[in-house]
Amino acid sequence: MSSSCLVNNEDTFNDEEISRLSLEIELLKQELNKKTELLKTKQKKCLTKLDVSRYSRQIILPEIGIEGQKKLKNASVLIIGVGGLGCPSSMYLASAGVGTIGLVDYDEVELNNLHRQLLHGQCNVGMRKVESGKLSLSRMNEDVNIVVHDVQLDGYNSLDIFKQYDVIIDASDNLVTRYIINDTCVKAGKPLVSGSAIHCDGQLTVYNYKGSVCFRCLHPKPQSPETIGNCASAGVLGPVPGVIGVLQAMETIKIIIDHPNVLYNSLLLYDGGDCNFKKIKLTNVKRAGCLCTRSTEDIVITMDYEEFCGSKANDKFKTLNLLNEDERITVIDLNKLISQNQPCLVIDVRKNVEYDMCHLPFSVNIQLNDLKREKTLLELIKQINSYSKTPNVITICRRGNDSQRAVKELKKYPQITKKVNWIKDVIGGLNEWSMKIDKTFPMY
């Protein structure tokens, strides 16, 4: 039997019929997509039975009500930094039913984050912060759309990201990023909820809202990098960024629902040690010539912000090179000298509190700033004279920057240099000792 006998002519289609059916299918798909988008739009505008039940405790507030909850459901908020401030602010916004939350961060979860960054668990150490944050927030409220931006924010990517959101939260940890965020908000016309926390103190304000001043109005020139600390170098008590982050969420909600008392043209100061809040009235007049007084087209956000601020756009440790190679030793060299019982005076130049946290048992603690004091120098000379053989002086710190400064300081005094073989510092400091010599030694 030939193959042609196996084909039923009534079931065959010519090319014209196939094209017609394909076109019908494509039109049906387009119609389905339109109806799906329409359904999503209607679902967004309306509160479901589940929404009413879930958010009932805030809906009954006259400040929120049904209309306010609808605004929250349709709102989008971008949070720059999934750290001490970004974690609590995102948690409360997700719990309040904000429809879309964007997370911007370039970093991974570290063990030293966990005392204050409560979105991240110990099992998430090493995970990208935006992914860890999305995982936790989705568990809290699966109806909220969490969008991740795993990037380091700069003047080239910020505008495209900011345009997607209604309100911007600055939960960053460095001055460069603060200027980038401010300038992009001004150019994009977005309100900015700005917070900061360090030690036991915090600040909060809202910029670029209803014609208010911007960050540059108050800070046209950046502070010197030496005068600005961060959590890594200066420390912070965990609940402090928690307080400020929650307040950032509060101000964001007020902006979304158009509350009359948003914190703009005012600065809120929080002193956690005294449990004291203080509100300072800021000028309501924009600074003449400020970026925020220009037209949108004239605002440039692709400048070299790191050069402008004199610092990096992250809180990562910056390694200094202040000494020559022959003025430094490795942790392996140090370990060998100690093992051979060589006469060495090892000076740990960190702060007293850091020395108390962890230190090498054969070291003495003399803070870097104390090396400039005459009394300290006299005591140091006594220690050097107590050695039966001419000693070596070795300075050490956490990561190898302050120890270099200490060497340069000590070499200013001939009464010390004449009494020792040499003065050198330890490359990489105690962190390097922990990685290469004693893995049980704590890193912080």
From TrEMBL:
Q: Name one GO biological process term.
A: Mo-molybdopterin cofactor biosynthetic process
What cofactor is this protein dependent on?
Zn(2+)
Assigned keywords, A-Z: ATP-binding, Coiled coil, Cytoplasm, Metal-binding, Molybdenum cofactor biosynthesis, Multifunctional enzyme, Nucleotide-binding, Nucleotidyltransferase, Transferase, tRNA processing, Zinc
Q: CDD domains, per this entry?
A: ThiF_MoeB_HesA_family (cd00757)
Q: What sequence ranges are listed for the domain Rhodanese?
A: 340-442
Q: Any note on cofactor binding?
A: Binds 1 zinc ion per subunit.
Annotated ATP binding lies at 84, 105, 112-116, 129, 173-174
Chief localization class? cytoplasm
An annotated GO cellular component of this protein is: cytosol
Per its UniProt record, what InterPro entries does this chain match? MOCS3/Uba4, Rhodanese-like_dom, Rhodanese-like_dom_sf, ThiF/MoeB/HesA, ThiF_NAD_FAD-bd, Ubiquitin-activating_enz
Catalytic positions? Answer: 231 (glycyl thioester intermediate), 397 (cysteine persulfide intermediate)
User: Which pathway does it take part in?
Assistant: tRNA modification; 5-methoxycarbonylmethyl-2-thiouridine-tRNA biosynthesis
Chain coiled-coil ranges: 18-45
Residues binding Zn(2+) are: 214, 217, 292
Compartments in which it is found:
Cytoplasm, Cytosol
What Pfam families does its record include? Rhodanese, ThiF
What one GO molecular function would you report for this record?
adenylyltransferase activity
Q: What is its EC number?
A: 2.7.7.-, 2.8.1.-
Which domain of life, per UniProt? Eukaryota
Family the entry assigns:
In the N-terminal section; belongs to the HesA/MoeB/ThiF family. UBA4 subfamily.
What is its biological role?
Plays a central role in 2-thiolation of mcm(5)S(2)U at tRNA wobble positions of cytosolic tRNA(Lys), tRNA(Glu) and tRNA(Gln). Acts by mediating the C-terminal thiocarboxylation of the sulfur carrier URM1. Its N-terminus first activates URM1 as acyl-adenylate (-COAMP), then the persulfide sulfur on the catalytic cysteine is transferred to URM1 to form thiocarboxylation (-COSH) of its C-terminus. The reaction probably involves hydrogen sulfide that is generated from the persulfide intermediate and that acts as nucleophile towards URM1. Subsequently, a transient disulfide bond is formed.
Q: What is this protein called?
A: Adenylyltransferase and sulfurtransferase MOCS3 homolog
Originating species: Sipha flava (yellow sugarcane aphid)
The UniProt gene name for this protein comes to LOC112688533
